[in-house]
């Protein structure tokens, strides 16, 4: 998907009580309208070092497209593969320079590290190498990374010490003016990654055996997109088109799910919308350090344990028999009219109904000021003709 729109004036950053910084609409926004297009300042592989060659798919280590034909290997380490000589040359000059190449090779060859450190630690080590390298190739982007949300003091000192010891002994980084490879810096970087990284997903497998599970191929730090706060019933969702042939294939595109008025906060869901209350609450607290009090959570918190503990892959069929009245043209959805389940309309209209998908649907961007009646799933890419629009 080619995106050539100016979104700079559609949202502004505001401090929101109890939620920190967020993005708020500066004007009425229509469903499908693109509000943010963001490029990553940092990308790194999500595959553990022990499985780089054993994934179901093979990805370019520069653009992270699925490699469909012959690949080009790094001439030094031969472990990292690229989809073309162009991507190889670009990587050697930036994300896969000599120190990165040597560091990843040493980690991969260190059996003690691989055997005694979890997949999560392996991925964090790859992030730290990529982040420290960013300070060399783009000091301004490194400063942006350090400015993002995430507090060093919240990180586990034992994990920080372990990663510092491994990287300092196996692949000590060269000095950077103004920074030392300290415990404090590692803790700060891990915190930034934890709170701001977006996953670029593998192609979705919808077969019954797979159960719709979808793994991450790479993680990226997107400064603008990281400002979106979470809502369990979002009014926007993000799309990525990694396997397209367009430039900027790793950009994140955020589109409105439905109309909103001026001054409304624009929110994403940090995980699939079909997750039940207990799952959402646990994940938000463990991964992001907060408890959600959105309208949906307030309603579902009053439900019994049996009502809340249903299968995450069921769209609460008993609750969507009578959907809310559709919003009139140019008005946003009201999420607070029903005491039992005020969000049934959202599930009927904006959740993909393909088996094992559970993606979110958003209209295509308006054309000539007219809303589109076609909705696209942000997980499987399916197109739905929406007769309500």
TrEMBL record:
Q: Note the InterPro entries from the entry.
A: ASHR2-like, SET_dom, SET_dom_sf
Q: What is this protein called?
A: SET domain-containing protein
Cross-referenced SMART domains, in alphabetical order? SET
According to its UniProt entry, this protein's organism is Salix udensis
In this chain the SET domain maps to 174-271
Listed SUPFAM superfamilies? SET domain
Q: Which domain of life is it from?
A: Eukaryota
């Amino acid at each position: 998907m080619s995106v050539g729109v100016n979104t700079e004036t559609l949202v502004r950053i505001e401090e929101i009580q109890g939620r920190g910084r967020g993005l708020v609409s500066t004007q009425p926004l229509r469903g499908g309208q693109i509000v943010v297009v963001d490029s990553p300042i940092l990308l790194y592989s999500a595959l553990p070092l022990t499985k780089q060659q054993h994934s179901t798919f093979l990805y370019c280590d520069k653009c992270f497209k699925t490699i469909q034909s012959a690949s080009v290997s790094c001439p030094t380490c031969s472990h990292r593969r690229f989809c073309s000589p162009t991507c190889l040359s670009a990587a050697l000059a930036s994300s896969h320079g000599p120190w990165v190449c040597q560091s990843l090779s040493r980690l991969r060859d260190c059996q003690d590290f691989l055997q005694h450190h979890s997949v999560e630690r392996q991925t964090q080590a790859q992030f730290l190498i990529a982040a420290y390298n960013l300070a060399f190739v783009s000091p301004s982007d490194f400063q942006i990374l350090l400015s993002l949300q995430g507090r060093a003091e919240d990180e586990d000192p034992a994990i920080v010490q372990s990663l510092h010891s491994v990287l300092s002994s196996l692949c000590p980084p060269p000095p950077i003016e103004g920074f030392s490879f300290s415990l404090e810096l590692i803790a700060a970087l891990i915190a930034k990654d934890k709170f701001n990284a977006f996953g670029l997903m593998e192609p979705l497998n919808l077969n019954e055996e797979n159960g719709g599970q979808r793994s991450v191929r790479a993680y990226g730090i997107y400064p603008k997109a990281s400002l979106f706060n979470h809502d369990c019933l979002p009014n926007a969702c993000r799309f990525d088109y990694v396997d397209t042939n367009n430039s900027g294939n790793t950009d994140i595109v955020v589109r409105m799910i439905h109309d909103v008025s001026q001054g409304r906060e624009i929110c994403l869901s940090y995980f699939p919308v079909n997750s039940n209350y207990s799952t959402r609450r646990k994940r938000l607290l463990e991964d992001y350090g907060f408890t959600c009090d959105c309208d949906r959570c307030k309603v579902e918190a009053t439900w019994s344990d049996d009502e809340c503990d249903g299968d995450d892959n069921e769209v609460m069929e008993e609750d969507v028999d009578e959907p809310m009245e559709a919003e009139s043209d140019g008005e946003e959805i009201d999420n607070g009219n029903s005491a039992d389940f005020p969000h049934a309309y959202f599930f009927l209209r904006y959740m993909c109904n393909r088996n094992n998908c559970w993606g979110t649907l958003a209209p295509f961007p308006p054309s000539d000021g007219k809303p589109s009646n076609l909705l696209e799933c942000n997980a499987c890419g399916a197109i739905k003709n929406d007769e309500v629009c």
